[in-house]
Design brief:
alpha+beta, Alpha-Beta Plaits, 5-stranded antiparallel beta sheet, 4-stranded antiparallel beta sheet, 33% strand
Amino acid sequence: MRMVDACFEARGERLPRDYGFVLFRALAGMLDWLEEDAAVGVHPLHGVTVSDGGLLLGPRARLKLRLPDARAEQARILCGCRLDVGSGIELGAAKLRELMPHATVHSRFVCTGCADEVEFLERAAAELREAELPTRMIAGKRHALQTPEGEVCGFSLLLHGLTPEQSLAVQERGLGQGRKLGCGIFVPHKSVLAVGALE
């Protein structure tokens, strides 16, 4: 199944610290297939974190959905919509981007269902082996996200030494739980040496 990123212009000011679940519910209210389609993921938003953990969106912010290319045109219904998240997010035009193979990829937040780093790495490795993917990885900063069902914990994770086929495979399938909340979605990373810069 070929996956792409649908990237929407996103205009807004401030989001709460734990915006993931609220964002997912807002999107699911407009895309009736979002919740049931296990392949679809919602990228975490990027911005400036303020003292209370909230997120300020910049002028170049983008809302990105990773989805099967067959869903790409259906997702365009979001263009021009307003999401009731934080101070509100206005969505503009969308562009589709193909996934690019890269030897090193990272995810800001991977959740395997445990808060202990050693156990986290063991579970991540087991899932990668099951998918016949290499387990060369480096864990970074610990993260936590509050949802109505409780706290979701995990770590940033970098995978390296991937072939082009392996890189695309891990980007397409993701890793761990919480794909709709921004977890386990991998993007290309410049270098293993820059792992210390992972958030």
